[in-house]
Amino acid sequence: MRVVQLSTMRDFYGGEVCLANLARGLVARGHEVTCIVRPDSRLAGELPARGLATCELPLFDWYEPISVSRLAAWLRRERVDIVHAHTPRDWFIATAATVGLPTISIATRHLLLPVAHARVKRSFLRRLGAMIAVSDAVRQVACGLVADDRLVTVPNGVELPVHAADGALLRSGLGLGRDDLVIGCVARLSPEKGVADLLRAVARLQRRWPNLVVLVMGDAPADSRHPAELQRLALELGLARQVRFCGYQPDAATLCAAFDVQVVSSLAEPCGLATLEAMAQSRPVVVTDSGGSPELVADGCEGFLVPPGDPERLAIRLDCLLDSPGLRREMGRRGRSRVERDFGVGLMAERTESVYRAARERNAG
Q1: How far apart are CA 303 and CA 284, in angstroms?
Q2: How far is it, in rounded angstroms, from Cα 321 to Cα 261?
Q3: Per mean pLDDT, which range of 59-68, 81-90, 186-195, 263-272 is the poorest?
Q4: Structural domains in the chain?
Q5: Residue 8 CA to chain centroid, in angstroms?
Q6: Is residue 266 within 8 Å of 285, Cβ to Cβ?
Q7: Which of the residues 11, 225, 317, 348 has an alpha carbon 20 to 30 A from that of 25?
Q8: Can you give the pTM of this predicted structure?
């Protein structure tokens, strides 16, 4: 099939990494995939760097005729079978652009938030061939946007390294000592990601674990004040030595092999990419018991689930893992097995391809 992955996002966070993973998985299955992005986006640089065919189109909003006509002309010229849109804005551009074309529009919902003005936009959504939710938790929020038989859960998938990354080498490159105990956090630096809760949990642990180091990998939009707020909080908690803000790391999925434990302390995660990336590197995880995270991690198996917004409980579970290298290894092994079974890129691509084929069959009938 000729497939377009469409995103008008300017930034490059978890949803955009998932788009890239899906595109690569579909290419591996023999499909002709092009990613359409805005020229002023980080996607315009990140996707070609990952070896993906990319086309830059100045698309702005669904109610702007010029955006719709630009996309429609491209789809018509390239005889595209599927246009797969990844944000609500993209859904509506895609459904409007495919009017009168044989191209089928597919949407993915990456977030747990309700869609703004969905009642007004349902006439567009009825034209979707299918909507994919990245977890059952997201599917519950998306219920009613499309017919039930067109709403399908396809969890995120991550690349599975054939050979485990050399954790000792990575730690050396990050300036870590052999005896350091490393907690990693890979997240966008925004309040809902709960990094402040992690810092408060670490403050409870620093006396017991003087060799504790926390690596926070991620950035935020340029106008966000939250990164500075987190740095101030770390100073106030006396964590200037323990906490390192590393900024955006394009190879974070590999660098997490340097961690002893990975924490995802978000108030709610749709289908935590950072969780899956750590599990793929055989690292135990401590994640919040909300959103789609319980669909990835069984409490006490691949890691621990803790209540969101509860630094005390987070500290207790971290202390348990820091105190037991054997438990860390066993949970890491189980996490890797779980990703191999349920959350690889190949399986995500296969499931998505099935959604595409079912939509084409419905359209033909």
Answers
A1: 5
A2: 8
A3: 59-68
A4: 2-157+344-364 (3.40.50.2000), 167-342 (3.40.50.2000)
A5: 16
A6: no
A7: 11
A8: 0.95
